[in-house]
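Listing S7. Sequence submitted for prediction.
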Amino acid sequence: MINQARLILKRVFGYDEFRPFQAEIIADVLNKKDVLVVMPTGGGKSLCYQIPALIFEGLTVVVSPLISLMKDQVAQLTQSGIGAAVLNSSLSPEQYRRNVGLVKQAKARLLYLAPEALLRSSMLDLLATVNVECLAIDEAHCISQWGHDFRPEYRRLVEARSHFPQAACMALTATATPRVREDIKTSLNLAAGSEFVASFNRENLFIQIVAKDHPVEQTIGFIQKFSDQSGIIYCYSRKQVEELNGVLRDKGFSVRPYHAGLSAVERSRNQEAFIRDDVQIIVATIAFGMGIDKPNVRFVVHFDLPKNIESYYQEIGRAGRDGLKSHCLLLFSYADVQKIKYFIDQKDSREKRVANIHLNALVGFVQSEVCRRIALLHYFGENYGSGKCNMCDNCLAREKEQLDITVHAQKFLSCVRRTGERFGGNHIIDVLRGSRAKKVLQFGHHKLSTYGIGADYSKKQWQQLARQFLNKGLMSQDMEFGGLKLTPKGWEVLRGDMPVGGQLEQEAAPRVNTPAKAGELNCDGRLFEILRKKRKQLADDSGVPPYVIFSDKTLVEMAAYFPQSTEGLMDIYGIGAVKLDRFGALFLDIIRRYCRENNISQRSRGSGNNPK
């Protein structure tokens, strides 16, 4: 049966090879074994149940928490010629009855349901009339109270299992620590089946964390590098979403807001505009994104600090799902930590304890000076084999020459000590720079010997130095109030017993390598744009997002290899038999005409491509 699966992989989905673990997972599911699948966002989880669904004679039921996810996957499956249906509250009565008919007539190979819908007696009665061969539970981390997105209705899914004793049960998630994985298996009564944990490493994501200083200007400067490309900006509150959206709109950016305070109609309209490439940027709270399978998101900005590492990982995972390079920027400030702490303090004691553990782990990740991937993957129980990824700010920073910043450290540490080891970094910097701020004068800190001794450096430079002193363990910070305190190591530096090496940034911020545009990724940029316009026209005519027709990666390969025959087109990533039949002639005509006009020949491919 695995040979049949490989044939489907190529003919239906247009991929040459399975990604790591996909073949093994599919083999277990086809043998009706229970499996837990942990794969990063964009790692190919959906194929692990979609391919078996096309081999099984009966029905595969997919449990998903969000309507948008179900709608998106059904649209993509339908475009690939696969019978799929969804039953949820977004359907009209006529659509609902039609989809029930597809299930009863065995015309749907996959049925997408919300967890609460599956547990309804009417739904269980419907499913009792068909042969359910596989129960796939997506976003399975929602089951665990130790997860970052616990949903009580997910906890009840074990009840549904008893109705389908012969069905294979799959639990799938992109974010699960070892503790959450154990909770998922226990809660679902998964048999002693297999657990597949793929690498959490998303090699194509550039990870960058910078001090939050003039965040609106920082954000504008960043997104200007991504003209005509899609991106998401996450904010903590609805108010911040509206304010930032307004500023960006007034600056001429193609942008829409998304948060729970908008009407359902407006949220849906804005999300749809983003998915269909009618709008470039979404400014959103964390209410946006789960289940959005838009593969060409080129950047994700965290304007505010996320609540925990799981949320951060899941949100940056919405970038670069097509495998092309994408950029993830987080603006960090301790004021954001205090904001999150305030809301944590409103929780009950158990929830507060879990939330504080999560927050402290996130702050530790942000402050780490090692390769971002080492710190991030370690959280999920994975060791990063290489010591350097060259796709994060820390790895690039370590290439810089280490300067002697001992005197700077002594000035800062002395000021921390003389102000009583109870104030945060910004106040210390105000004192060092000789500020006449009200707080400085109120506490008499303008009379200290350290007042004004750091005036020759900017606030931004001192903030960058202070982060290094924290990372090197010269100071500790009270996570509740933000006050700085010297550590034994810091006292050694202050006494002159230990030197300190680091970086002192000049006023001009260092350039950070940003991912190239799709048109610059070893392909013909003009042809890529022509193909993209044709894709958009076809998508609009069909009422689907452009990536449902072809992904950016597919267009990039067309514009890199210039296929001029049906056989050449079939070698392109993501082109299966159905899409070749529907769109192949149109795109071949464009490529052939472009090649004739520019005297270009078809290029041969290297090794096989990898599935999404």
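Caption to Listing S7: primary sequence and predicted structure tokens for the chain studied. The CA atoms of residues 230 and 280 lie 5 Å apart. The first strand starts at residue 35 and ends at 38.
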